[in-house]
Structures are given as structure tokens and as C-alpha cells.
Design a protein that fits this description.
Helix content of chain A: 25-40%
Helix content of chain B: over 70%
Distance between the termini of chain B: 50 Å
Function (chain A): Part of the ABC transporter FtsEX involved in cellular division. Important for assembly or stability of the septal ring.
CATH superfamily of chain B: MetI-like
CATH superfamily of the largest domain in chain A: P-loop containing nucleotide triphosphate hydrolases
CATH topology of chain B: MetI-like fold
GO molecular function (chain A): ATP binding; ATP hydrolysis activity
Keywords (chain A): Amino-acid transport, ATP-binding, Cell membrane, Membrane, Nucleotide-binding, Translocase, Transport
CATH class of the largest domain in chain A: Alpha Beta
Strand content of chain A: 25-35%
Low-confidence stretches of chain B: none
CATH topology of the largest domain in chain A: Rossmann fold
Structural class of chain A: alpha/beta
Oligomer: heterodimer
Shape of chain A: elongated
Largest sheet of chain B: none
Strand content of chain B: under 5%
Low-confidence stretches of chain A: none
Strand order of the largest sheet of chain A: 6-7-8-3-9-10
Order of helices and strands of chain B: HHHHHHHHH
Number of strands of chain B: 0
Number of helices of chain A: 12
Radius of gyration of chain A: 24 Å
GO biological process, one term (chain A): amino acid transport
Radius of gyration of chain B: 20 Å
Distance between the termini of chain A: 43 Å
CATH architecture of chain B: Orthogonal Bundle
CATH class of chain B: Mainly Alpha
Organism (chain A): Thauera phenolivorans
Amino acid sequence: MIHIENLHKTYRVDGREITALQDIDLHIGKGEVFGIIGRSGAGKSTLIRTLNLLERPSAGRIVIDGEDITRFDREALFQLRQRTGMIFQHFNLLNAKTVAGNIDWPLKTTGRFGAAERAARVAEMLELVGLAEHGSKYPAQLSGGQKQRVGIARALANHPNLLLCDEATSALDPETTQAILRLLLDINRRLGLTIVLITHEMEVIRTICDRVAVIDAGRIVESGPVSEVFLHPKHAVTRSMVAQSDALTAALLDPAGLGAKVRGLPVRLTYLGDVTYQPILSHVAAISPARITILQGTVSTIKDQPYGQLLVEIDGTAEEVEAVFRAFDAFKIHHEVLQ
Amino acid sequence: MDLSLIDWGDIWQATWETLAMTGFSLLFTVLIGLPLGILLFVTSKNQLLEQRGLYVVLSFVVNVLRSVPFLILLIVMIPVTVLLIGTSLGVEGAIPPLVVGTAPFFARLVENVLREIDRGVIEACQAMGIRTHRIIFGALLPEALPGLIAATTVTAITLMSYAAMSGVIGGGGLGDLAIRFGYQRFQTEVMVITVAVLVVLVQLLQYSGDRLVLYFTRK
């Protein structure tokens, strides 16, 4: 659906050229939830803004549904933006309009719909985001989560086929974040809407994205399916964003710290899918006399897919350890010796 | 102080004249200053219709008009006023200099009020594919309404004190009364009463302005 090819963006600030994006190549499929993650200042905000040309790229092509949008004239750009929804970190609602007025605003301004049609659509959108009771309130009377729901309803009112989320949950507390993410995922599934989101939180990516690109200093440094990038990060920036387990790895390899206590072989186990809920360790223990100690572990889900990641210490002879690894291989458990 | 010396009919008459001068010049000030302020805002840097050249010219003209002391403007404007409405005296004669004196001031206030609107709101409208004129009239102005009312209140009060000043060149109203009776005929009572009436009028204006701002504030 979206092909970004060789995209560059440079700014002039006080006569100096500043590169915000370089050599960006991305493909985003129809109906996909695609995440772009990076630290602040990495260029992710600039990147998502090029998808509706709030930012004009300096070079490169952005092809959406077969059309290069960077060549669009004014009129075509208005049309493109009308079928592209966008939600924001700070919601950006109109304070002078009611909730219903905010949702109606993009419909009214296209001039394409009659009053009755618009009222029906507004009611439908309020229902969709769970704010049916709040249509006549003003944004100032709503909580942050409710405001973002209004933002989502407003963005979807015009039947978009693409939704851009600019740090949409960064101003919300963790519980509200989860509720908003569930709503977005639900919308993605029910309407087949393509969603592109940017965030600095790995948690957001893990909860709803199918694929992810990691951006650093204006370049995409790593991209792929979320499970792949999340469980086997390759680039240093990705590793530090996934962090947690890496902090422990460092401690483990520190001979003065935790490293001193570990006598066996430190190993990281990673597994994905149904195997997560199977009694692997007891099975392995039955095969090999090697002693396995769990040092740290996570069992959770990536989108709806269960996964586990364990840091274990395996103590035994070379043959015993080898037998353990063979058992892991049989269960398709990825194992990596940390040295 | 002997209040029996005061001709209350004169005071009434002068109060109405002051109100008429303030009212009519406020009307024209808003009619000219509001579009000018909007234009200043939208043509400024990084705004919807950025036009550096136009902004610099408009901004310069506004600054020049604002730097002329009002008393000088009153005198300089006399021939222009005569040309426009046939006389430079009375209530009508005071309106053109009042409007020229305050419209640039009001335009600046409007520009500042619009600048206070969250940039993100404008960006959201652009992202929805809303045309620029709809963004200005359908989103920006309604969002700015409380601020615009506050700016209008400030301007109305400035106009009222300027209107009193126009008494110097025969402008009519409370200022005229104060100068002719209170100053030139040494009737301190008239001076005191005219000032008292002005104080009451200003209080009323500010109070109603504040109430309106409150009524339209949705934050």
C-alpha cells in the first residue's frame, strides 16, 4: 500500500543544512499495523509527517496506492489528506467545538455529505470509540483517554484507508494506553485499516504492531516482524530499546558482579508460539542430568503471539550440555550462549 | 464643590456623544483591524499563508501608525477627515482619527491572540485536508473568540479615553465638556463629574467584556 523509496529530508537552520531523514526505504502492506520506533530526535516524527506531506521530503518518492504523492497538486493533496486519518500526542482537538462538533468538522468541510448523513456518521463514530454519552460535552470536560478517543473518531469519520498515529499514547497513563491500543487494534481488524504509528515505547510496538522499523539519526537501522526485531535485536539502538534483559546480560558477564556467582554456562533462551506453554524444562531435565537455573525470565505476548525469553545457567559436562541444546533444537527454542 | 452649578442636560448629552464616538469607531476599528490582524498572522513566518514581503510591509505600516502620538494624529488627520466626511468637528469628525489611531493597535492584538492558539490544532486541520480559508474562519476564529473579545474590550476602553482627548480639537463628548467648562471656565465640578462618568463607563465596559470572555471560554 505504501512504498517509501530513497527518502531524504534536510532542513536549513541558520544557514546550516541539517539532515533529518536519509536513505529511507520502507514498504508497508495493506491492513498492516506498522510501527516506527526511535529515540526523541531520531526523525520518526518527521518521517510520519511525510506520509501526508505535512513535511515535504527533499528527495525520494512516497507511493501510496500506486500514486507518488510527492507529485500531487494542491487539490490532490487535499483529497489525499481527507482519506488519511491522523491522531496526535496532544490530541489537538478544537476546544471551542463539542465532541460531536469535532467529529463532524472534517465531514462538514468536505461539503460532500448532507446534514442527516453527517449526524448519522458522527453517532456511529461516537459509538465506535465508546463515547456515545459524551457528544455534547466540550473537550475540556474529558479525560486524556477520552480526548484521544475523540481524536480517533475524528480521524476515522471520513472513511480513511490509512491512519497515522503520532505518539498517540505518549501522554497517557499505562492503563489508558492499553485501552487506546486495544481500540486501535480492534479498528484495524474490523475495518481493515492500515495503521502507521510512531512511538518511543517498545511496549506499544509489542502490543499492536505486525512489523517495526527502528530509526536512529534519520536512518532505518533495523526492520522486520516485531517478534524478530524484539526477540533478536541486532542493532545497538534496538538492543537498548528492548533493554531490560541486556542490562542483566551485562551484569552476568561482569566478573566482579553476578558473573562471579555463575559457575555454569549462561544461556539466553528465546521461544515463540505454542511451545511457550509446554513443560519444556522438565522434559529437558528428564533427558540430561545438567542442572538448569533460571536467572531471569519473561513470558508474555507479542500482539497475540505468546513468547518467552529466559536467561538460564546450565551446569554440567560438555556432553550433558550438548544434550540439553539438542533438546532445545528439537523444540525450536533459540539458544544463545552469552560470553 | 457646588453641584447645583452643573447642567445635567449637558452631561447627559456629552455622555451619549462619548458613547456614540466609542461605539462607531469601535465598529470601524474591528472592521478594519480584524482582517488586518488575521492577515498579519497568516502571512507571518511558518503560518498558513506565509508571505514574507507582505508581512514586512503590513507590519511596518502598523508600527508607523502606532508610533504617532494620538494628539499629533488628531491634528494631522484633520484634512483627511474633512475630505472623508466634510467636517473635522463633533462626533463624526472624531471618528476617522480614532479609527486610524486604534485599528493598527487592535490588529496587533488580534495577531497575538491568534498566535496563542496551539499550533497542533492548525496542523490537525491541515492533516484532515481542510482548505485554508475554512481553517481560518471555521477553526482559528472560533478557537480565538474569548481572546478576541478580550482584545476588543481593551480596544474599546482605549477608544473611550482617546475619544475624550479628541475634545482638544473640538471632537465633542465628555472630553470636550471637560475642556470647555472644566478647564477653560474653571468649573472644577464639571471636570470631576466628567471624569467620574468616564470611570463608571470604563468599569462597565471591562465588566461586560470579562463576562463575555467567561461565557465563551471552553477551557
